[in-house]
Amino acid sequence: MAPLVIFxxxxxxxxxxxxxxxxxxxxxxxxxxxxNVLDQIKSILKSLEDLRHVLNGYVESWxxxxxxxxxxxxxxxxGDLALAFSLLRHTGLGWTSVDQVLHKTLPxxxxxxxxxxxxxxxxxxxxxxxxxxxxxxxxxSHIYRANITLxxxxxxxxxxxxxEGGRENFSEHQYYHSLSVADLATIGVAAINSGYFEVGxxxxxAARARATPTMPxxxxxxxxxxxxxxxxxxxxxxxxxxxxxxxxxxxxxxxxVHDHVLKIRGPRSLTHTxxxxxxxxxxxxxxxxxxxxxxxxxxxxxxxxxxxxxxxxERVLVERMQVERLCRGEGLRPSSVTSQxxxxxxxxxxxxxxxxxxxxxxxxxxxxxxxxxxxxGWGEAGEIRRNAAPHLHTPNHHPPPQxxxxxxxxxxxxxxxxxWLDGQEGPLKKLERRLSHLLSVSLTPQDSxxxxxxxxxxxxxxxxxxxxxxxxxxxIHATAGERMATVLTYLTTPTQGGHTVFPWVGVxxxxxxxxxxxxxxxLASHEHDFLTVHAACPLLRGIKTIVTKxxxxxGQWMNLPCPTDPSTKIILPSH
Length: 575
Hints:
The protein is of the alpha+beta class. 42% of the residues lie in helices and 12% in strands. It is elongated, with a radius of gyration of 31 Å. The N terminus is likely disordered.
């Protein structure tokens, strides 16, 4: 393990306690701020260049006088006419230009002072943000199996493929940013340190190949067709930190670390991923758990709950791999299950919705998951986003306002920003009314938690988790009680990625702006439904903003009487 330890020690990044700046709202602001700052810097450089040119000319004029006859010394009383003329000409004509350029430069000093205060007045990204963003890029590349060679020249969104065949929403005329040598190398180092060893090697290879387009290939995965493109577009943006020699050393170390981990630990675990074969020996083949584990969904998963060995040793890894497969667009359910699903208009038995029923698509029957279209208009969704944007902040693991629950322990993505809203007026109040009529539940502040708006940032994702608190945690909202149901409403439509997936159900859902995803977290017995574990896939392109409402258990007993069979599952909306 020596190479791995050395790599981590040399290239590890220090967390300085800075809140990451990776949300799209912050990145949008950073882009606009950077444009303004660069305009100021260019103006300063132009003024300083003029100043340098004039001052250099003034100094050179004086040096000519000093190098003239008489050793360039002023002798009092000698009356050297030529020297006196040179002095008068130098000062009389030269200082006019100096004075003009100095007065022209003075305003720029204020700009310099303003820029010098930027780090004190703005929350600028730092090494911690770069590390988080690099890990997000590595995670996205791993999950979506990006072609890193193509990524180096054409951008990550052209390089990411789905299992269903092809690049999502791809347009040859759409511009995609390509990464520089320094970008690729930075992501490669972070990928190795995060356990994405195969991705790390490929990023470092792409960096090295782009720095020297004629470099021979080191493995078969990096096909040669893009090399001609690289030779045509030589963007050798090495940066100060990545010389050719350093890239060679990084790539060599990464390959040795990759092969060492593969040999000792195999190609996949909870903390690492590698290629199926070592880079140093492409003839060696090591079996991967991904090649021998079938999808485990539905009843098959519930049956395995009694197998302590499987639950302890394999469950979490299988869950993670099924999340990744669903994120790539792969379906894990047989046709005998999906053929039972339907899509129709429903009113939930509400006279109010009779004249305006909502379109409901069944996503799963067990557990009951449905996608309700049109619960929000586009304008209403936009208004909620605008109202929430100024208040978005990094979750601090504490419960919403006026609740008495304990802090949560879910693993949050640093790029996720959120805010709790009471929803007592405006479009949130309308959303509450529509959902209450459709689902036959009470969504009042006393019977449910406040609305939570969440905004996903660069590569934003959320690990697999359940929404209920029992049996390890106290409900966040003491009055509402357990989270009986989850209503997740999409305020935007992500362009690529960002699906909501249920690994033990075997289904992934692409959010549509204005639609709401509804699922029931508990059985009639109040026990947690283990199949409702869900995750948010990394965001590839576009914006993902959601608003979530958790339906409390305590306030629903009048509307949803307890059935005789405690294992009964709630199926709403049903008509």
